[in-house]
Amino acid sequence: YQVDSVLFDPTDGRTVRDSSSSQIRETIVETWMAEDGKQMCSIERAIYEEASAEWVTTDIYLTYADELEAVCVEENLSFTKMIFPMREGLRWSGLNFDPTLEVFVADEPIEMFKNWESVMRGINEPMQIGDFSFDEITTIEIANDTNAIELRTGLEHYAKNVGLVYRELYILDTQNTLAPDSVVWADKAEE
Q: Can the peptide bond before residue 85 be classed as cis, meaning omega within 30 degrees of 0?
């Protein structure tokens, strides 16, 4: 995956934007059938370090699926990624933990998962993503919540027989409640 990030860091009374770009590789390292019938996968995530021209493993996470759901466990947080049978418009809580959990970003606490709700937006639709064309993509909206001081949106595209091929995530906070509605989040975000 090509990963592009923008970090909004409140520093000395102003917001500093720090952009980064990296490549991440995810490899299924083990699969097995659990006693309860769940198909289990252990997945290794690695980041490409340009200085050494090597892939460096950052973590290993677990996924599993059965006839009712597909779940991913990352950093000890469990996410229900899909519910079966799939149906457009289907809604569910994708979080299997307290959504008010604070995550620290640039040494600042943020309730990253606040008001997340998953919605199945499209099933088995053809889609072009970058240079790749897929015949069957399922689209999951993992969050879509905004108010005067918080923006939480996320979208994931899964290709049949491939897995996750695209993720877009915006987690932004501001205390700038005086900004006109015409000011976009990227310009008023402070965290």
A: yes
Q: What is the pTM of this model?
A: 0.86
Tell me the C-alpha to C-alpha distance, in Å, between residue 153 and each of 16, 116, 143, 156: 21, 8, 5, 11
Tokens 């059965």 -> residue: 66
Residue 185 in 3-state DSSP?
Answer: helix
What is d(CA 142, CA 94) in angstroms, rounded to the nearest whole number?
Answer: 7
- Mind listing the pLDDT tens digit of every residue in the chain (191 residues)? 888 777 776 666 666 667 778 889 999 999 999 999 899 999 999 999 887 889 999 999 999 999 999 999 999 999 999 999 999 999 999 999 999 999 988 788 889 999 999 999 999 999 999 999 999 999 999 999 988 888 899 999 999 999 999 999 998 888 777 777 777 777 666 66
Q: Could you tell me which of 99, 104, 97, 46 has the C-alpha nearest to residue 71?
A: 97
- Per the listing, tokens 């799939």 go with 86
Strand order in the sheet with 91-92: 91-92, 118-129, 132-146, 150-159, 163-173
